What we know:
Layout: H1 2-43, E1 48-50, E2 56-57, H2 60-65, E3 70-72, E4 79-83, E5 88-96, H3 101-107, E6 112-115, E7 126-131, H4 138-141, E8 159-164, E9 167-180, H5 185-188, E10 194-202, E11 209-221
Parallel strand pairs: 1-3, 2-3, 5-6, 7-10
Antiparallel strand pairs: 4-5, 4-8, 6-7, 8-9, 9-11, 10-11
Amino acid sequence: MxxxxxxxxxxxxxxxxxxxxxxxxFSFGPLLKDEIWxxxxxxxxxxxxxxxxxxxxxxxxxxxxxxxxxxxxxxxxEFSLVIERIxxxxxxxxxxxxxxxxxxxxxxxxxxxxxxxSQYPSREPGNVYLFAHASLNFFDLGGYASVFNxxxxxxxxxxxxxxYKGDDYVYEVTNKEVVKGWNTQPLLRPVxxxxxxxxxxxxxxxxxxxxxxxxxxxxxxxxxx
Length: 225
């Protein structure tokens, strides 16, 4: 009986520790997976290329064993975002309110949100403002909860592609910054050229700060139609 009394607290504590570890793995799993994938990709100098000729179809085999580029086919040439360096290939939901939490939370379950107060891709001066999750809470926020988890990995000069109405708008990263969660300057700032702004949470899963990437239009590649 004495042995049983002493072992019960130990067993309970072990269960709590195991549950805690499982919770951490469950919560941080998507972020950890993305970080490991990016580390291996960079270590192997593996490239992701839009419609790469002779490229491999994305798979576990291709990521780990193939030395060929991995081909990325835009999910929607009408409106989507492709960032080859970090493997982003996601639809863009147009005209999403940045002040209606219910509306933008619903939109972010289906892709990357385009702020309704911003412009559409064009050669004319304007700010195309896109925002998406960098989150741990994928089980509540949907399949695109971690789409911008690796946004901070972008470097100056990296290309970002916005497909709009069949055309490929190619932007080049020119700035990265962290701003407070309430700071609307990246959305409302005046611009004198065609600019793309990408925004996500910093740190992931919080609303404390916003991580913002700015890119400038470099080229427009006409579509087939």
